Amino acid sequence: MKTHDVIVIGAGHNGLTAAAYLARAGLDVLVLERNPYIGGAAVSRELYPGFTYSNCSYVSSLMRPEIMRDLDLPRYGLQITPFRGGLTMTRDGDYIASYRDRDMHRREIARHSPRDAESYDRYSAAVMRQCRFIRPMLLETPPDPTSLLPRDLRGLWRIGRAFRDLGPAGMYETIRFWTMSMADFLDQYFENDLVKAHFTGSSIIGTGLGPRSPGSAYVMLHHHMGEVDGTIGAWGYARGGMGAISRSLAGALEAAGGAIRTDAPVARVIVRKRRVAGVALEDGEEISARAVVSGMDFRRTVLQAMEPGDLPAGLVKAARNFKIRGSSGKLNIALDGMPTFRGVPADCPALAGDLHVTETIEEFERAYDDWKNGRWSRRPYVDLMIPSLTDPTMTPPGKHYMSIFVQYVPPELADGPWTSEKRDAFGRTVIDMLSEYSPDLKDLILHMEVRTPRELEEEVGLTEGNIFQGELTLDQLMFNRPAPGYAQYRLPVRGMYMCGSSTHPGGGVMGAPGANAAREIIADLRAGKRA
Amino acid sequence: MTGDRRYGAIVIGGGHNGLVCGAFLAKAGLSVLIVEAADTLGGAARNAEIAEGYVAPACAHILHLLHPQVRARLKLRRHGLRLAARRLPTVALDAQGDHLTIRGRHLEGVISDDDVRAWRRLRRRLLRMAGALHPFLGRVPPRLGSDSWRDRLMLIRLALAVRRLGKREMREFLRIVNMNVADLLDDELSDARLKGALAFDAVLGTNFGPRSPGSVLTWLYRLAGEVGSGRTGLAIPQGGMAGLTEALAASARSFGADIWTGTAVKRIVVEGDRAVAVELESGNVLRTRAVLSSADPRATFLNLVGPEHLDTGFLRGVRGIRSNGLAAKLNLALDGLPEFTGLDRAALAGRIVIAPDIAHVERAFDQTKYGAYAAEPAIEITIPTLHDASLAPAGGHVLSAVVQYAPYGLAAGWEAHRDAFADRVMESIERYAPGLARRIVGRQVLTPADIEREFRITGGHWHHGDLAADQIFMLRPVPGWAQYETPISGLFLCGAGAHPGGGVTGAAGMNAARRVLSTRHGKDAG
Amino acid sequence: MTAGARHEAPLLKTPFHPRTAVLNQAKQWGRWAGYATVACFTELAHEYFAIRHAATLFDVSPMKKYRISGTDAERYLNRLLTRDVRKLRTDRVAYAVWCNDDGKVLDDGTVFRLGEKEVLLMAQERHLAWLQDSAFGYDATIEDVSEAIAGLALQGPLSCTVLKAMELDGIAQLKPFGIARFDLSGTPLTVSRTGYTGDLGYELWTEPDKALELWDRLMAAGALYRLTPIGSRALDLARIEAGFIQANVDFIAADHSVRMTRQRSPFELGLDWMVDFDKGHFVGRRALLRERETGPRYRLVGLDIEGSKPAAGALVYYGRARQVGLVTSAAWSPTAKRNIALATLQAPFADKTDGLWAEIYVNKELKWEKTAARCRIVTRPFFDPPRRRATPAPDF
């Protein structure tokens, strides 16, 4: 039986990224995917004839440009187009918009608060300082602060130097930023409730925190540290939907000689004599390999794919206690035409961006409280987008695709598990709320897919439906991700690795965990050959 | 009282930090004057007569954080500090009457062996971490980006203290320090009462719920303070908290400090960028070489110094300190010992906590986010008269309750809702102590708005500012000014608004005094 | 303001737009504070020489204007600015800078003292939050009145002549940095003897709905004197000759900088003369006192560079290898007949009399050539005609 160099479990974007790097390093790589299609949470699905849904992740910014270049992804079909602006609508028929044009953006803020408009540059500079601090760390393996090994000390030294270079005021600002809540961070700059709410969304997307929870400022940074073509913080669409990212990664992988098998669910990792021997599929087939890298989340990797007896008890406990809470839902809607929004001119350029209806921090916080109490938010935060305004290939001409990301949706409800009826009721909550702003929305719906954390877990394989494969709180970031002592992509069984978003630097369609893991694996396999 | 004598240092505020600071300065040979606006010393650590013959702790009611060096160096025992009770157990009330007593590492009540073992493990671990942090409570925090050897040494010491925990514990420390306490407790323990009471400890006096990240840090911070009280544990001074205040005042006087009560300060006089005098409400101007303010930072800078002497960025920082109180106080004068279902007299002598589970505390917190007080608050109760009968007429008792959460900025306004709030608190307590209301002969309610007024603490916050990762240590009171000095030469902070913050620790006063003595202000004055 | 068109236009139009748009034959537009402003109407040389030989009009309406009023207006400004505003009498103007706590410059601008309790502060950058926060504890109200005031800069040796032709009585007696008030068919017209060209010149301020009338009357009065509308490029050349620094060109507004090391103090910008330590406390005073002890890290200097190739963006070297600074503004000065520049140098090198070189890249028919040009530190302004200060203003 053939022995592969590396088996990658899961053809999500991180698994594919790791596989592509490994194949380009000359290794024999096989990717095993449970679903009949690749992509994990970065997919384009035709669930209604003629309409393409990015039915999980829906916008791109975080995918590291270094990876796009290394793997030559544009050659395999990747095109990313930035979108323009975004807006938050109010019940009284007004709105606040963001525009890419600085002066337009400033004047729009000034419409609601002249003072806040003139604070925006100072706010932007502070966010940019944090981006500059964190970005060099994204494609680095986190150093272990308890280690005295030269590479760890070097890593710590680099971080320490970057920190010191911020200057005294910058250092204090950084410590505070990483530990403070988004609400407190915004209070330093803005006074107007609507202005603050408009900037708040990215601090809670995908996370079990409210804007008043310490640590939520970091989550905002996590959504701003990406870029489109050098514009830091910009977001864009992958032409043809998020599946285009996965397809281009697969293209790069296959061009380098790697292979992908779909409909190949891995049941367990085979460990012999404390080292990895391969994997067993659910149908009993065994495939051998020198190394296995799991793109699944930390909990699944450790608790489902591996035997507790093969692992230290502390690791098993860490996996069990890993915070991976579902908090998000998704509606994907095929529309018969472009809906109108009360008070927003039909030609407002910001409509091509992300649309919201949460007007105050208090509304965010109440939506969060609902989730804490085991029910979906009665007035959820939505990140609503109409990608077909930017990418007409998503729908038949004149029709539109609407993607609605919904926060907060619990993985389990206080009154018991999710059912299809509850799922539909959840969908109605969202549509009813949006109908207050868009009276014709309901009549335009041709087809609607409603996804709760249950669907995300069952179809995509994300535990509890957590979109980041683990909460982005400080106890689970950097050298703590996924668990202290296991942040360098290795598990304590020889040949066993992790490359999913459960590892540093975390979730979002970033590819960095995959690229970092591949680097560690290649180094180990080369060292092994020498030995 | 005239301004003839020129003092080496004037301390504003005769709360425990002000007294500690004044005593340390006087001990070092400075001529010191401590001025207190109220007629009674003690600030939040004083007694209040709430009904004829009934004396209750005005605010703070448990002594457990007093810094050991304060106790030893100021010879508080010699100056009359006696403990009426020590090592108070915590009694976690249970809705079904199945109460749990936490006595250090021991748990008493119906509880699983797993939880007993897990609590010992967790407590040992937390106390080790707290022990590593404890020395830093008694030190001047370092300045970042400075070239001074002192600052660098302090940072190295901090790193070493964490490293000395050992690889495993260091990793665990760096993980849990930013966690929320609910997650930590859920990971380690299963008993709802135990978790509820511990979660309450973690968030008491903070603006957090148990599910707010950072609540493990506030718990560790509290434990770091408690480490200093050693085997004394939670204690109640003889004569109430005033017992401590009297000992501190006696100590300060023994070193030669003057103490004036009923002496409110109008402003700090700044000339040529130096604090040179203190002007009293009476109009008297007292010149001095150093002014130490134990008033909260907002009051100190915005009212006493005035913005015209300060830079805009600094003022932004001061105005941005989150210092709205969330804890209220309810004191009851009772004509007899209250009866709590399922608690005997020994248990009543402990610290009784109403926080039956984590969700209870979190729900109570959530309401404050929207400007309401908790409908079912989390409550800490002591009955000091069980330890010191002199505090009430014969047969009478005093029940002292700290009530979390009651937000300073009550949307509906406190004036109209104080009584309704107190009634809700009574309901919550009566659920466990039926018939309590019938025993009441006097009731005192202090909302944060009352605390602001009575104790002159802006926002009515016991700690003069939230204890949270972004407002402690090097960042307290504002980034860059954590060394007790202020932008005004000769003006120092010595209250809870400075490191290490609130609680009856005396550490801020002690650290500030040391800082002054190490500068030329102290040397000139000495 | 209602939702819709206005804030969705990338560029706004100034009150003078109906005139400038027609005259803008070169169709070169630039943007300034969100407004479309003319970069060049016809050709640069024509416009530039009109500044130094005749008279010119430049639309300064996009300038940020903050009205500060209240009983504490003077105390407030004395706290905000590094200069002593008590010395600024009513109807006088002063150049000023203001700093953050660290003594780093937030912006420079001009202070128009309109009365005992009323001052107008004009600046490039936006500071409303800072200005308001600095007013905490003061009876001083800060309003943004940028859109309520239209402004024209009338600059050049014949500028007073034009105003006299417009029958502004007594205008020749107006001293530099003085303010005079006139009537424009029933609407107040404020004239200040100020400008950004380093030449004889005035700035005229009125209400936006009187803007076109003002323009037309000036153009009519100036018809005999070659009064020429100019764009921002000609003005920039003149301001470099005058040695004036510009925010976001020669320094970065401190609280908009991402890299804190890019922030500059008044000392580092060569504005030592603007810092008054004797007036009492002002924001940044303590930091600047410390800097006065330790010395600034950088100095902004004027350079005279050999050859004729403008050195914009050039790195400055000491010797052949040691990089010691950067040119922030540069031009061939047609009037001074010198190749001039403003540069920021590391402090120890700002006193060198010899050994400074600018690395200049010149495109010669699609080929870039690198030259090392010798630099000499010279005093500013590079061009400083006596007419700039003469009172009564000379009549040519």
**CATH architecture group name of the domain at 11-61 and 149-230 in chain C:** 2-Layer Sandwich
Q: Assess the beta-strand content of chain C as a share of residues.
A: 25-35%
Biggest β-sheet of chain C, characterized? 6 strands, mixed
Helix-and-strand structural type of chain B = alpha/beta
The whole-number mean of residue pLDDT values of chain B reads 95
The largest sheet of chain B, given as strand count, sense and whether it forms a barrel, is: 8 strands, mixed
Number-wise, the strands of chain B total: 19
Compute the number of helices of chain B. 17
Record field, number of beta strands of chain C: 19
Shape of chain C: globular
- Overall radius of gyration of chain B: 22 Å
Search tags:
heterotrimer, B: 526 residues, alpha/beta, FAD/NAD(P)-binding domain, eight-stranded mixed sheet, seven-stranded mixed sheet, 17 helices, 36% helix, 18% strand, C: 396 residues, alpha+beta, Gyrase A, domain 2, Elongation Factor Tu (Ef-tu), domain 3, six-stranded mixed sheet, six-stranded antiparallel β-barrel, 9 helices, globular
Which secondary structure elements does this structure contain, and how are they paired or packed?
The complex is a heterotrimer of chains A (531), B (526) and C (396).
Chain A: E1 3-9, H1 13-24, E2 29-32, E3 45-48, E4 51-53, H2 65-70, E5 80-82, E6 86-89, E7 95-98, H3 102-112, H4 114-138, H5 150-164, H6 167-179, H7 182-187, H8 193-200, H9 216-224, E8 227-228, E9 231-232, E10 236-238, H10 243-255, E11 259-261, E12 266-272, E13 275-281, E14 286-294, H11 298-304, H12 313-320, E15 328-335, E16 354-356, H13 361-372, E17 381-385, E18 400-407, H14 420-435, H15 441-444, E19 445-451, H16 453-460, E20 496-498, H17 512-530
Helix pairs in contact in A: 1-10, 1-17, 3-4, 11-12
Chain B: E1 7-12, H1 16-27, E2 32-35, E3 47-51, E4 54-57, H2 68-73, E5 83-85, E6 90-92, E7 100-103, E8 106-108, H3 113-137, H4 149-163, H5 167-176, H6 181-188, H7 192-203, H8 215-228, E9 236-237, H9 241-254, E10 258-260, E11 265-271, E12 274-280, E13 285-293, H10 297-305, H11 312-319, E14 327-334, H12 345-348, E15 351-354, H13 358-368, E16 378-382, E17 397-404, H14 418-430, E18 440-446, H15 448-455, E19 491-493, H16 507-518, H17 520-525
Parallel strand pairs in B: 1-2, 1-13, 2-10, 6-15, 13-19
Antiparallel strand pairs in B: 3-4, 5-9, 6-7, 7-8, 11-12, 12-13, 14-17, 14-18, 15-16, 16-17
Chain C: H1 5-8, H2 17-23, E1 28-32, E2 35-40, H3 44-53, E3 55-59, E4 64-69, H4 73-80, E5 92-99, E6 105-115, E7 118-123, H5 128-134, E8 141-144, E9 150-155, H6 159-165, E10 179-184, E11 187-192, E12 201-206, H7 211-221, E13 227-229, H8 232-241, H9 285-294, E14 298-305, E15 315-318, E16 322-333, E17 338-346, E18 356-364, E19 367-378
Parallel strand pairs in C: 3-13
Antiparallel strand pairs in C: 1-2, 3-9, 4-7, 4-8, 5-6, 6-7, 9-12, 10-11, 11-12, 14-17, 14-19, 15-16, 15-18, 16-17, 18-19
Helix pairs in contact in C: 3-8
